[in-house]
Amino acid sequence: xxxxxxxxxxxxxxxxxLAAGLYLVATPIGAARDITLRALDILATADVLAxxxxxxxxxxxxxxxxxxxxxxxxxxxxxxxxxxxxxxxRAIEEGKSVAYASEAGTPMVSDPGxxxxxxxxxxxxxxxxxxxxxxxxxALTVSGLPSDRFLFAGFxxxxxxxxxxFLEGLKSMQATVIFYESPKRINxxxxxxxxxxxxxxxxALCRELTKRFEEVTRGTLGxxxxxxxxxxxxxxxxxxxxxxxERVADTADWEAALEAALERMTVKDAAAMVAEAYDLPxxxxxxxxxKRGK
Length: 294
Known about the structure:
The protein is of the alpha/beta class. The chain has helices at residues 37-45, 54-63, 81-93, 114-122, 135-143, 160-170, 186-197, 221-228, 251-262, 267-277, 282-292, and strands at residues 2-4, 10-12, 21-25, 48-51, 73-75, 97-101, 127-130, 150-155, 176-181, 202-207, 215-220, 237-241. A five-stranded parallel sheet has the order 5-4-6-3-7, sandwiched between helices. Strands 8-9-12-10-11 form a five-stranded mixed sheet.
């Protein structure tokens, strides 16, 4: 089957008709050709379309030659998701396929879709992911920072007190921390992180990923503060910060903790607790505990 789009292009639909369910469709964060073939299949065949921004989805479909036809296109964003969700769930219950797309990137990754997906799951309805572009993963890929363990932190709170508490809770994280940040606040964010997390901590600032003016700046937090000082920054920004340096346990501290633990616990339990608390080899702590537990 071939569907003709309003722009004169066409898209050949592959596979079978979609089964009833909620399809969470990832859309490009910049380059329109980054969309997956499966996402195009879903957008071309779903009975009902829903989008964070209906104009953006219409434009994306036009680029790829997918016509909307007489299918409903339902706005579903932060301000109306609670009201839009029941309509979309009813459609699934009636045996229809519903495709939901964020404005850019993956639904629910700092984008709407969570209440809708949660309600569908609670109702026992199928929820299917059509994975694809994500600014967080794209930035992690090009950052040069460790990717074996990472934490997506999203946007920091705007209020000063909540922001300090938020950042303090992530300061010692043993993982690469990924933030989204607005151009208006990026200089403030860099300065706060440099002062509180340490100017020598490695970081990467990714701006306008996959777009014409894509830019990736790597260095220490202190270097990034200098690089962006006074700049009129524009575009979508992902900021990544390297994991905290591993804390080296002070021998006197953990041995004192072990002594206290041995007064109320068995040798085995005391050693296990202290080893975990101070990130030490359990065998080493156990050998010390054996000598002191006699």
